[in-house]
Amino acid sequence: MLVSKPLKDTSAWKALQAHYEQIKDTHLRKLFADDPDRADKFSVEGADLYLDYSKNRITDETLRLLVQLAKERGVVERRDAMFRGEKINVTEKRAVLHAALRAPKGSAIIVDGENVVPQVHGVLDKMAAFSNRVRRGEWRGHTGKVIRNVINIGIGGSDLGPVMAYEALKHYSDRSFTFRFVSNVDGTDFFEATRDLDPAETLFIISSKTFTTLETMTNAHTARLWSVEGLGNNEKAVARHFVAVSTNAAEVAKFGIDTANMFGFWDWVGGRYSMDSAIGLSTMLAIGPDNFHVMLDGFRQMDEHFRTAPLDRNLPILMGLLSVWYNDFFGAQTVGVFPYEHYLKRFPAYLQQLTMESNGKRVTLEGAEVDYDTGSIYWGEPGTNGQHSFYQMIHQGTKLIPADFIAFSHSLNPLARHHDMLVANVFAQTEALAFGKTTEQVKAEGTPDWLVPHRVFEGNRPSNTILMDRLTPATLGKLVALYEHSVFTQGAIWNIDSFDQWGVELGKVLAQRIIPELESKAEPKLGHDSSTNSLVRRYRRLKETSR
């Protein structure tokens, strides 16, 4: 499974570099003019998801060489090792088995000699039983009132996935409940989430694998105080208003949560890959167990497509290879993701963690420093809003920004002409990005010569178009899995560990050192650099003078 050659020494990489020099200035206008069947040739369907990647700066030869690169870098072997439960997260010596979270009952995935699928379904069944009790009004708060408000407290993967899924599937949610999410240690986040709620009707989900995460547990203890004070200062109230998604039973019990209401997960589930585990309890409470299982089936369908489809017809692999093509050969630093579906407004933020925490790495699996660019910066906003802000740069700026456009053929809320107008903008934007408007075309419109340069669109800006029927729990699962496996493909090409995240550690360690320096009544002895020392002292002075 391990890659033997450095990336730049592979024959496919060398051939791609020579090929890039040959076609780097070839315009999409010419590529389409030379090949009337281009749109059919460079489009693929899998798991009922249609990908048109014809508006990319590639030829048949590009695709052949990219597929060859995937073969030389062992993408298939690494993929199969992941599905077998091998410990491909080498720095933490862990399996990488988010695919097991949606494996069907009766299947077998072995980790350390044990089939983990029954464990997964045991947790799912426990989640379903609890969700049904809450949704039916059978779970009562300390005073006997039914639960009407659910607040998920987490951070990173314990927040971004649940927030994104709730917003994405709001159409399917029980609107008699209020769902809110607290992640920021900034007290404003907690205040605004609770300011208009009744503690007697509020359930908190504390999502922290270790139950020691600084931000999450700070917010959790504030929530505990808010709840207890609002319920007559009765400590026993905690057990009726708090549940935990964690693996640390001792800390959960110490907090006052009944461990019978603790929902576990496993060290082979990375936080950013965990929205379909117990971390998705808030999602299940919102949309119900049946819809949650439909979402899992969507994940499963894309997993199966990724596992079995030929490389040149495999959606996640194609998207991953295209990302490598632009990142490493064209020098594109970012990827825009533009969902033309308002419910997906948090999807780009979710992808930021999925992609950038996974592939923001500077050393290989063996610990050698890379001599090529790894992970791109992912960003985006829903269409059509973005068209009136940052699209100017994508169309006429100096930076090459490959983009993914996500659209649906049916709206969940059909209103007059709205949806046709929305989708027309998707097709128009990708057409404009690809083909632009030439100087001759601008002049033919009667534009004064002095204004012509300002109205020329260079075009040749690449994009993918992802088209699905409508946003359902199943299509959300497919879409998330598509990007999960695209990230995997990129990491396999670059020979990096896409499943650790050591880069988040140092800042947390230093923060633990600085917190007591900010809170100390006596002047602390500081041992930081001159800038940090100065900032600590200034903060302390400002805090003191404002009292």
Task: Give a written overview of the molecule.
The chain is an alpha/beta fold. The protein is globular. The termini are far apart. The chain has helices at residues 11-23, 28-34, 38-41, 60-72, 75-84, 117-135, 157-168, 187-194, 214-230, 238-241, 249-255, 281-287, 289-308, 315-328, 347-359, 391-396, 418-435, 439-444, 452-455, 473-494, 505-519, 530-545, and strands at residues 43-46, 49-52, 110-111, 114-115, 149-153, 178-182, 202-207, 242-245, 262-263, 334-339, 377-379, 403-408, 463-468. α7 links the parallel β5 (149-153) and β6. α7 packs antiparallel against α15. The protein is built from 22 helices and 13 strands. The strands form three sheets. A six-stranded mixed beta sheet has the order 1-2-13-12-10-11, with helices on both faces. A five-stranded parallel beta sheet has the order 6-5-7-8-9, sandwiched between helices.
Short characterization:
This protein has 547 residues and is α/β, with parallel strands linked by helices. The protein is built from 22 helices and 13 strands.
Give the amount of beta strand, in percent.
5-15%
Number of helical runs? 22
- Summarize the main sheet: 6 strands, mixed
Classify the helix fraction into a percent range: 40-55%
Q: Look at the helices and sheets and give the structural class.
A: alpha/beta
Give the overall shape: globular
Major sheet: arrangement of strands: 1-2-13-12-10-11
Count of individual beta strands? 13
- Rg, nearest Å: 25 Å
Distance between the termini: 61 Å
**Unreliable residue runs:** none
Q: Round the mean pLDDT to the nearest integer and report it.
A: 97
